[in-house]
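Tutorial, part two.
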Amino acid sequence: MTNLEQLRSVFVESLGIDAAQVNDELRYNSIPQWDSTAHMILIAQLEQSFNLMLDTDDIIDMSSFAQAKAILAKYDVVFT
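Running the prediction step on this input gives:
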C-alpha cells in the first residue's frame, strides 16, 4: 500500500466516509462526519499509521486532505 493509499484509508476509517469522498477538496467541517471529535480520532490514527507524533500546530493546521499530505511531508512521508 502506498502512503497515499494509506492516508486515504485513514481518512475513510476515521471519518466513516466513502473513499470517493476523500480528495484534495475535502475540508474540516465540510461534511458532518469531520467535526472536532472526529478530527482528534483522525490525528490519533494518522500518528499510529505513520508512526509519528504531530506537533500541536500541525494538528490545528490540518484543515483538509491536501493539507494533511503537506503536513505529513514535513515528517518525511513521501506521496507519489
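Residues 3-74 form a domain with the Non-ribosomal Peptide Synthetase Peptidyl Carrier Protein; Chain A fold (CATH 1.10.1200.10). In part three we will examine how such features are distributed along the chain.
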